[in-house]
Amino acid sequence: MASGAADFVAQAYDQVAVSEVIRPAAVIPEEAARAILVELALQDVVNGGVWQSEPNLWSRYDRPWISSSDPGDAQLIGTIQVAYGTPTKYEITIYRVTVSHFGAEHDWDVNSLTDDALKFGDLTLDECPRASLRPPPKPFRF
């Protein structure tokens, strides 16, 4: 691995205090998903809010950015990795939550970070329906 790439990976891991795979994955029902997406858009960093939402990652900051492209002194609290359109077309699945060192130092954890986003849909992580776990397929045999 090139020195620059190694430094980038090391820096990324240095920022992570806790990363948890949500098993079974939390499924946000359609109505709650719509409400959450609308509120995340309204509270996006480009609108002076503290969320930066992308199709696969929701990032929470401690304060609004200086501008839509400059975070200024805003610190990342953590991220929520999501998949849109799964298990059904209008649902969202939460499968990993990561809290930064800064977030952990300021009393954020996996549940509080996730609940901060889910509150827009009147949900908490504990209340979210869970994806059904199916047994793995049988091995292929000739």
Biggest β-sheet, characterized?
5 strands, antiparallel
Give the class from helix and strand content and strand pairing.
alpha+beta
**What is the CA-based Rg, rounded?**
17 Å
Strand content: 25-35%
What is the succession of H and E elements?
HEHEEEEHH
The CATH level-2 architecture of the domain at 17-64 and 71-121 is identified as 2-Layer Sandwich
Report the strand count: 5
Number of helices, where a helix is a run of at least 4 consecutive DSSP H or I residues:
4
Task: Flag low-confidence runs.
Answer: 1-10
How much helix, percentage-wise, in residues? 25-40%
What's the mean pLDDT score? 87
Spatially, the strands of the biggest sheet line up as 1-5-4-3-2
CATH topology of the domain at 17-64 and 71-121: TATA-Binding Protein
CATH class placement of the domain at 17-64 and 71-121: Alpha Beta
**So what's the overall shape?**
globular
Assembly type:
single chain
CA distance, first residue to last residue: 40 Å
What does the model show?
With 142 residues, the chain is α+β, with helices and mostly antiparallel strands. The chain has a domain at 17-64 and 71-121: TATA-Binding Protein (2-Layer Sandwich), CATH 3.30.310. Helices cover 27% and strands 27% of the residues. It contains four helices and five strands. A five-stranded antiparallel beta sheet has the order 1-5-4-3-2. The longest helix has 13 residues, at 30-42. It is globular and about 60 Å long. The termini are far apart. 25% of the residues are buried.
